[in-house]
From TrEMBL:
Keywords: Membrane, Transmembrane, Transmembrane helix. The chain crosses the membrane at residues 6-29, 72-91. This is Uncharacterized protein. It comes from Pseudomonas brassicacearum.
Amino acid sequence: MDYLVGMKACINVIGLCLNMGGVIMLFFWSLPQPSPDANTGRILEDGTNMEDGRTAGEHRAEAARKKLKSKVIAYAALTLLLAGFGCQLFAAV
């Protein structure tokens, strides 16, 4: 019986750690939001040079990469939160 109590406590701690990892990830990379950078130079052609020397197409591509990275990290964080919740629920039963 003591073995089961110790195992449940361990699973609970694992769940808490997964939850904290997910919360920290969401703190630094929040859930995806509409990005105004994605619309940079919508009336400009992709080959048009901008003030910083890059083209409008390069600006759009960079904004799309940033948005994809943020989305992947946010969904990974949500997965950690759900896994942590599952561990804690399993430990409570």
